[in-house]
Design a protein that fits this description.
Blueprint: H1 6-16, E1 23-26, H2 31-39, E2 44-47, H3 52-63, E3 68-69, H4 71-80
Parallel strand pairs: 1-2, 2-3
Helix pairs in contact: 2-4
Length: 84
């Protein structure tokens, strides 16, 4: 989302439509970004490198009410510990 922060957008969506499930597909899988996204209520977090087929599966997963966080991004976030 050039010029916009996906987490800020997700927060706005949550505030306006609390039942809406959001997902971020990002090229910036930094640990702090993931933690902020989860705190904002994002239900899915995946890298832009995911295949179209897999992305469709993940969208269905999130739409069904489940959560998906890319395992590699999650491991990086855990290994990084707390960040600002």
């Amino acid at each position: 989302m050039p010029g916009a922060d996906g987490v800020t957008v997700a927060t706005s969506i949550r505030d306006e439509l609390p039942d809406c499930r959001t997902m971020i597909v990002t090229g910036h899988g930094r640990p702090g970004h993931l933690k902020r996204a989860l705190a904002a209520g994002v239900r899915g977090f995946a890298p832009k490198t995911v295949s179209a087929e897999r992305l469709a599966e993940l969208i269905r997963t999130v739409h069904a009410g489940n959560r998906y966080v890319d395992p590699e991004l999650a491991a990086d976030a855990i290994a990084a510990g707390d960040s600002r």
